[in-house]
Amino acid sequence: MHTDTESLTEGFLQPFPPKAAQLIVTIYGDIVEPRGGVLWMGDLISLCASFGVNESLVRTAVSRLVSKGQLTGEREGRRSFYALTPDAREEYHLAADLFYGPEDTDCGWLLTHCTEAADQAILMRFGFASLEGNVFIGADRPGRPLLGTTFRATDVPNRGDLKDIASSAFGLGSLACDYAEFVSRFGPMQDLVARGLLPRSALLFRLALVHAYRGIRLRDPRLPRSVLPKDWSGYEARSLFAALYRNLSPGADGYIAQNLMNQDGLLAEEPDAVLKRMQALSSSI
To answer: What positions belong to coiled-coil segments (predicted)?
Structure first.
């Protein structure tokens, strides 16, 4: 049976309740990857159950993640443990930099002439937008693919026109609404955290927070600050996320260290990767 706090946690995810596979990705990214990448299936089922995702859905989703090469399973006696594959760990680590890493600074642009459909799909996945025909534009961030014929632009004389182009090409209006909705939905969490939470509730709140923020942040093209509105709602969302994450983490990480397991026993409370996350988030508050 859910406690009142756990029910509230589900409410923070409304009106978009989690799908099993996406929730599992959130759990592994937030809890498991920085602690070695392995979790007991029983703990995974228990965490997902707190968000209304039943055991059958969890097992089906895990099987699909195994078939996609993201997870691999091991048995020890009657217990099953699922580990992130090396490729998945690298992917999760890179994605974590988006959520827990330093804030985006200003940057230049990448202009690409790309004619291959497969390469165009990759560009779009990495936050590029089509300007006209086979010409694509994206922020010059680390890890962005250089496909087709690519040029770097570090200075744009007519900044006003570029702001209009950016807003239209990258759908900034819709993204701004999503960030504003995130702030509206999770702002009240601050009062609940201030009153004090049980360690398990702190972990569930943090998972709800990460799950919602992740869904928006992965769609953010991370444009140069110079073309974003001064009142860009992504700034407030980032600050709220960082503050809540840091405030929830003492209880959440304490619960992890006392209750969640891999093959060697209980997971670590604050490994180096977690400490680095906390340090990076402190600069966003």
So the answer is: none
